[in-house]
Amino acid sequence: MTTIISLKDISKTYHNGDLAVEVLHGISLDIDAGEFVAIIGQSGSGKSTLMNILGCLDKPTSGDYLLDGEHVSSFDADELAALRRRTFGFVFQSYNLIPTASAQENVEVPAVYAGASARDRHDRAEALLNSLKLGDRLDHRPNQLSGGQQQRVSIARALMNGGRVILADEPTGALDSQSGEEVMALLRSMNESGHTIIVITHSREVAEQADRLIELRDGRIIADRTKKRRSNPEAASGLKQRAIEGVAAIADVTEAIKMALRALRANLFRTILTLLGIVIGVGSVVAMLAIGTGAQNSVLDRISSMGSDLLVIRPNMANFRGGTGGSVVTLIPADADAILEHPNVAFAVPEMTSTVTVRYGNIDYQTSANGTVPQYPVAKSWKIGKGEFINQNDMDTYAPVTVLGKTVEKTLFPDGESPLGKYVLVNKIPFQVIGVMSEMGAGPGGNDQDDTILVPLTTGSMRLFGQRNVRSITVQVKDGAAIDATQETIQALLDRRHKKQDTQITNMASIREAVTETSNTLKLFLGAVAAISLLVGGIGVMNIMLVSVSERTREIGVRMATGARQRDILLQFIIEALVVSAIGGAIGVVAGLGTGVLAKVLGAPISFTVGPVVLAFACSFLTGLVFGYLPARNASRLQPAVALSSE
User: What family does the database annotate (predicted)?
Assistant: First the structure.
C-alpha cells in the first residue's frame, strides 16, 4: 500500500485576541492511495478544521503533514495552491458554484489556473458533464439547476485536474435522500477508479458507506476502524500521471476579462453607476481641454494675424498724467523714417486715427479713419480684397483716395454695388474709393476690425485730422531672435530724439508668450477640475471593488481551493477594475468629443487633438489600476479556509 497522506501530531489553535482555542490536539493518521475514508464527528469536533488541513486550505499550528512523502506544513500560499491544483478536488455541502458562470465554466475553473488551453478545458469539461448525465445542462447557471445537478457539477469540477484526492464536505447534507444516494454512488465509482475519497460528515449512515471510518470528538481521534480494506494503487498511480499540470496561471488575459465581464454584468445597475463617475471624469477632461485649446488657438491666431515679430510704439501717456503740462505731440512721421535706418527693421508703419462721418448717396455712417502708409497691409497681415491699396505716389501727392473696410462697404453699398472708382464724402471732403480690404472679423478686444477706412497718412494729416503727430508706429523686425535687442535700440533712439522717455514699446512676441502662459494655466485649471471628477470616479471604482470582494468572498475561497494563486486572484480583480475603467473611459471619450462638437456648432472655438484624448483614456486606466489595487490585494490575501466559511 502507498501512503499518500500522513499526519503526525497535528494541532491547530485559533486566536481571538488574547483568547487561544485549541481545536485539534495531536492528530496522527495515515491515508493510503485509493482508500475510501469517512471522518465523522458532531459540530465542534474539529472535523472541518481537519478537512481544511488535509486539503491544504489551512496550515496546522504544529506537527508534520506529509503528502506523497513531502513535508508541506511549511509551504507558502502559492506552493499550497499548486498542491491543491494538481492533487485535490473538493465537493462542498453548499456546492460553492460561481453563480455568474455556466455549468461548463464552473467545471473549467481548476484547469484555468492549471494553464490548460481553452480547447482542452472545453473538451474535458464537456466530457465530464456528459459522463455525469449533464450534457444538456452545459450552458445552465447554478440557479437553473437542481440541488443534485449542482452537486454533480461540483464533482465534475473536482475531477477536472485529475482529483487524486477528493475531499467531500457533507456532500449529501443539502440533498434529498435519492440525490444523496446518487452522489454517494458517484463517490464510490470514483474510488473504484483509483481516487482517494475522504468524506467529512456528521451522519453515521453516510459514514458507514465508506471502507474506513475515523471518528473525532473534541479535536481527538477516538476511533479509527477499517471495515474493508480496498484500494487500487495502480489506478491511483495512473491518476497521478494523468493530472493536469500547466503553468499555474490564468491561461490568458481574455479569460480574466471574461470573468470580469460576468461579474460586472451580475450587478449591472451598480456597475452603471460606477461607470458614470469615470464617464464624467474622462468626458470632462476631453471636452474642457478641447475648449481650452480652442480658445488659446483662437487668441494666438488673432495675435499672429497682427504679426508676432512686431513692435508697436505709442506715446507714453503716463508721462502726461503727472501734471507736467504740454500737448501730447510725441510720435511724428519722421520718427518712423529714423527707425527705418536700423539694420534689423524691415519697415516702420506710422498711423493716425480719428472718428469721421462717411457719406455715400443718402447714407451717412460714422466710422474711424486711419491714416497710414503703403506697408500697412504687410504689417497687419491684412490682404486687399478688391482694387488696390495706397501707394507711394498717393503719399507724395496728398491724393484724396481711400480703401474701405468690409463693414463700411456693406453699409454704404448695401445693394452689392461695386464701390471701386466711386466717391464718398469723408467729413464732407470727397475721397475716391480705390480698394476694399478683405474681411478680418473681430479683433482680440472684440472690436470690429473691418469698421474703418484707410487713407494716405499725408492726406489724412492735412485734410482730416488737422495734426502732425501719429497715434502709433508699427515696426516689423527682420530677425525675430533679435527683437528684444532691437526694441532696446529703438527705445534709446526715440529717447535721444525726444530728449525724454515719452514713448512705450509693446513687443507682440512677449504678448504672445504671455497669452500662451495664461492659456496654459487656464487649461491646467480646467484639467484639474476634470481630474477631480476622474478622482471621484476612481473612488467609485474602489467602492464597487471592495463591495465585490466582500460579496464574493466565498467565490474567492472556491477559486483558491481549485488552485488559484494569490497573483491569480490579484490579477483577476485588477482586470475587473481595469475593464470598468476602460469601458467608462471609452464612453467618456465619445461623450467628451460629442460635447466638443456641440460646443463648436454653437460657435465656441474648439480644437481637438490626440493628446488630451489619449491622456484622458490613459488616466482612466491608471485610475482603475490605482483604485483597484487595494481591493484586489485584500482579495488575494484571504485565507482559503476563512473565505470558504464566510456567509
Answer: Belongs to the ABC transporter superfamily. Macrolide exporter (TC 3.A.1.122) family.
Instruction: Please give the CATH architecture assigned to the domain spanning 3-251.
Output: 3-Layer(aba) Sandwich (3.40)
Domain with CATH 3.40.50.300 in the chain: 3-251
N-to-C CA span, the chain: 40
Pick from 213, 211, 198, 206: nearest CA to 167:
198
How large is the angle between the packed helices 508-551 and 268-305, nearest 10 degrees?
180
Measure Cα distances from 100 to 123, 171, 552, 620 in Å.
21, 22, 11, 26
Cβ partners under 8 Å of residue 260, min gap 6: 572, 575, 576, 579
Grid cell 510725441 is found at 330
Calculate the alpha carbon distances from 475 to 16, 92, 308, 409, 482 in Å: 86, 89, 11, 29, 13
Strands, E assignment, 273-341: 310-315
Helix, strand, coil proportions of the chain in percent (round to 5)?
50, 20, 30
Give residue-wise pLDDT tens across range 273-310. 777 877 877 887 788 777 777 766 666 555 555 555 77
Q: How far apart are CA 364 and CA 411, in angstroms?
A: 9
Q: Which three cell numbers stand for residue 451?
A: 469698421
Give the neighbor-by-neighbor strand order of the sheet with 70-71. Answer: 19-32, 3-16, 62-67, 70-71
Pairing of β 472-477 and β 429-437: unpaired
Q: Which residue has the cell 487656464?
A: 522
List the grid coordinates of 115: 494553464
Lowest mean pLDDT among 144-158, 199-213, 297-311, 568-582: 297-311
Q: CA nearest 212: which of 5, 32, 3, 38?
A: 38
Q: What is the pLDDT of residue 327?
A: 39
* Long-range contact set of residues 546-554: C-beta below 8 Å, sequence gap at least 24: 546/630, 546/631, 546/634, 547/270, 548/263, 548/267, 548/573, 548/576, 548/631, 549/573, 549/631, 549/632, 549/634, 549/635, 552/263, 553/638, 553/643, 553/646, 554/96, 554/643, 554/644, 554/646
Would you call 297 exposed, middle or buried from its count of C-beta atoms within 10 A (0-12, 13-18, 19+)? middle
Most confident of 71-75, 295-299, 314-318, 606-610: 71-75
Residue 583 has pLDDT above 60, yes or no: yes
Pick the closest to residue 115 from 218, 12, 245 (CA basis).
245
Bridge partners for 625 per DSSP: none
Number of residues assigned to the chain: 647
